[in-house]
Amino acid sequence: MKVAIMQPYFLPYIGYFKLIKEADTFVVYDDVNFIKKGWINRNNILVNEQQFLFTIPLQYVSQNKLINEIEIDENSEWKKGLLKTINHAYSKAPFFKEVYPLIKKIIEFQETNIAKFILYSLEQVCCFLEIKTNIIISSDIKKINILKGQEKIIDICQKLGATYYLNASGGKSLYDENQFLNGNIFLKFIEPPQITYPQFKNTFIPYLSIIDVLMFNSLESIQDFLK
Predict the structure, then answer these.
(1) In the chain, is it the N or the C terminus that has fewer CB atoms within a 10 Å radius of its CB?
(2) Residues 6+ apart with CB under 8 A from 147
(3) Is the pTM value of this prediction over 0.70?
């Protein structure tokens, strides 16, 4: 069985969904410490032909808290503002009419826990893309929580009966293949799709949120990207 484990990122780039698709079980790593200025609650989209960073506002953020202990600031108008920005940015994109209802459904989801909110968004995008991978959260797995780094990853894989651990290619420096082999697990790195596509008339900007990919490409094209 192939297992992949990643922290919850909100509407991440297509490489994240490539990793989900390649796995039999994808674990949303929700019970590790929150990282400020990471990709958990923010991402980039295309606005006026430029890369634009949007952020979900959070309450009482601390790197001493677990991701699943962080709450969204529901007192702000961020949902309305973000939807307005997306509408303005992509209303003339070729697949806006098909995709905007999905994005609106995700953003308007009534959940204040950031981990659960992102889990829902990942499930919805995977459903849209017809990705059948089983998605679970790490806090539901009975494991040795005092472990750190790759030892904790190996423990999770063993609890799930994994024969392969899949990770994004950017994580090659984090893991020792021999340590995984000692646990009867093969380590495999997944390269992100090397794609380009028309983004209105501007020069292509890569690695934007999956929102951008969805707005400019048909379902069939995206499924080809993920193969």
Answers:
(1) C
(2) 155
(3) yes
